[in-house]
Amino acid sequence: MRKGLTITFLLCIILVVLAEAVLPQIIGGTLEKRIRDRMATQDAQVTVVSHPGLLLLLGQVDSLQAVTHQAKIGQVYVKELSLEGEAVHLDMGSLMDDGQLKVTKARSLIMQGTIDEENLREVLSRRVDKLENVQVRVTPEKALVTAEVKVMGRKAEAELSGQVVEDSGSLYFRMEHLSLKNSRLGRIKLDGLFGDVFGDVLLAGPDKIPLGMKVTEVKQMDGAISVKAKLPEAES
Question: What is the CB neighbour count within 10 angstroms for residue 30?
Fold first, then answer.
């Protein structure tokens, strides 16, 4: 009997060691696949840590870190995106059975991403069908868009300036100034009328931002826009 207990004890130690070494790789690999599928990217690296490692089977993650590039959030591709979480509880049933990546609660969960000028140009070209040959330049003060647009059957040069903003947890490109120029009309300023002409451009709604997070901060820089999203307080 003593020998049997010793063998059982050794087996338990082996299982615990294997859980500590293997489970983080298995769970991390599964999360990488779900992120790649969810965000239409081929590049995702995920690290999960939990002590003891067996807690990962219950979806309890002490520390979660993820990095991906050219990930699609809503309508816009994000050049570089990082995710950091502490005391994160994953819905393991949805993760393993349905392929859904869900967080039931977390002490903190923050996503940060960078949208560069090419990312913004690409989404505006797709979302605003009136614009052609779109070019974008981003500065801390504004996002300047130059393009061609048809006016009364003729092409005109359009110059738009605005801001990438957060509104109720969603991400928008919001126009502030618009002017048109062609050989017949000359230059016409249409400041304040952009909403009536084209409307705000929704880049990412809250239902499209991963893990139920909402955009909380947007900062324009030279050549790029920094975006931060968090899990709402009620869910943290």
Answer: 18
Residue 94 is classified by DSSP as I
Question: What CA–CA distance (Å, rounded) separates 93 from 80?
Answer: 29
What are the pLDDT digits (tens) for 111-129? 999 999 999 999 998 887 7
Asked if 77 and 123 count as a contact pair (C-beta separation under 8 A), the reply is: yes
Instruction: With residue 52 as reference, give the H or E element that holds it.
Output: none
Torsion of CA 58, 64, 69, 72, to 10 degrees: 50
Among 221, 216, 171, 177, which Cα is nearest to 197's?
177
DSSP state of 216: E
**Distance (Å, rounded) from C-alpha 215 to C-alpha 208?**
11
Distance CA 150, CA 25 (A): 54
Segment 34-60, tens digit of pLDDT: 888 888 888 899 999 988 877 888 889
Largest CA distance in the chain: 100
Token reading at 77: 């591709």
Give the start-end residues of each E strand in 140-223.
143-151, 154-167, 170-182, 186-189, 201-204, 214-221
Task: Output the pTM of the full model.
Answer: 0.81
Give the chain's mean pLDDT.
83
Burial class (CB in 10 A: 0-12, 13-18, 19+), 93: exposed
Task: Tell the burial category of 216 from Cβ atoms under 10 Å away from its Cβ (0-12, 13-18, 19+).
Answer: middle
Which alpha helices (DSSP H) does the chain contain, by range? 2-39, 92-93, 117-127, 194-197
